[in-house]
Amino acid sequence: MSKRVVIALIVVTALIGAGIAFDRQRAKERQGASLASAAKQKVPPLPQRGALLLAADEMELRGDAMCGFCYWREGGSTCNTVLQMSQEPGIVFLLPNEKRTEMEQLTGVCAGGNYSITARGTVTQYGGHNYMLVKNFEAVETK
How much is the pTM? Predict the structure, then answer.
């Protein structure tokens, strides 16, 4: 082989080796960054205090409107409004309907506890959680 072909092969091999080394370094940096972000985003446990409410057609509950997904990664894969109460049961998920939509227009889809809600409606349980279908509500801005 000629000198030019040998030199070209050596240069190409060196470039491929450098590219592989660069990709490995980037992969290590990404892995370190993802571990750091996962540690920052540790989700606190859902404040379920072990009590399930009895099913009822008419019940009144008071609590702060919070986003179940943003705070606890619960209730689906998008923002959803829950009532967080200081006493048992702790959390009641609000089922989607036009009243929850009205509530989210007031509190924002990703509610942050700025409103105290008194909700009336039908309560049921599923999978160890309480759910409410809101018929009407009152909201008071707390923050």
Answer: 0.65
